[in-house]
Write a structure and sequence with these properties.
The protein is of the alpha/beta class and 239 residues long. 48% of the residues lie in helices and 16% in strands. The protein is built from eleven helices and seven strands. The protein is elongated, with a radius of gyration of 20 Å.
Length: 239
């Protein structure tokens, strides 16, 4: 399992910065490296030998920064860092410029917690995908850029039970497909997606209940048999 993704928060309003920190810390797999309130502090943090963050949550309305200068300085100097803009700026010109600069996402204040969590989950999905393959098919690329949810029918997404999140469910179905004929156990899946075993099992059993996943017991030489989960297509092909 990947170590937690590090997040640097650049926000001059300490109240909003604290809210953003709380939002980040609610999502498994992310930690806040630091919170800074000015462009000068942000650049100092990045240049003083600290471990670089994976993500910067950037407010572009910072008192000591003119226009998008901080955004472009970070983008040109630290290309390995992903930037997520969180701002009150709604001007089309601003949005177009940061999109052209490769921003990962753009969220307008006040921030909706669900939208925030979905964004971080999508980030985690993309990073996992990019680190797990050497080549990508067009469908994988489409899913990465367009956040397709083809693996979860719209009707099912609309009626998901409590405790089942559509984005996490999509991540799990994608992972199951990559496991080929071997399937996974709840323990194995929990390590891959960074959740508890009980959470992983809840999602797997839900997929069983909607006929997207089958189970099979695998008997070893000692101990109890393993309960392994297979996508229905894979299960049928290997029977």
């Amino acid at each position: 399992m990947h170590e937690a993704y590090r997040v640097l928060i650049v926000e001059d309003d300490f109240r909003i910065a604290n809210i953003n920190r709380q939002f980040v810390e609610k999502v498994d797999g992310f930690i806040v490296s630091d919170t800074v309130r000015t462009g000068e502090e942000a650049l100092a943090f990045l240049s003083e030998g600290n471990e670089l963050p994976d993500i910067i949550l950037l407010d572009i309305y910072i008192p000591d920064v003119e226009d998008l200068n901080l955004f472009w300085e970070i983008r040109s100097t630290y290309k390995e860092i992903d930037i997520i803009v969180i701002t009150a700026a709604k001007e089309v010109e601003t949005i177009q410029e940061v999109v052209r600069g490769g921003v990962f996402d753009y969220i307008i204040k006040p921030v909706d917690v669900t939208r925030f969590e979905q964004m971080l989950t999508r980030y985690k999905e993309r990073r996992h995908l990019l680190s797990s393959v050497k080549e990508m098919e067009q469908g994988d690329i489409d899913a990465m850029f367009w956040s397709k949810r083809a693996t979860i029918p719209k009707k099912q997404r609309a009626g998901l039970p409590k405790g089942i999140d559509a984005i996490t469910l999509k991540e799990i179905t994608s992972l199951l497909k990559t496991e080929q004929s071997g399937g996974v156990t709840a323990v194995e899946l929990s390590k891959q997606i960074g959740t508890s075993r009980s959470t992983a099992r809840r999602y797997l059993e839900y997929l069983v209940s909607i006929d997207q996943v089958e189970t099979r017991l695998k008997y070893g030489t000692v101990g109890r048999p393993e309960r392994r989960y297979f996508p229905c297509e894979t299960y049928e092909q290997n029977d």
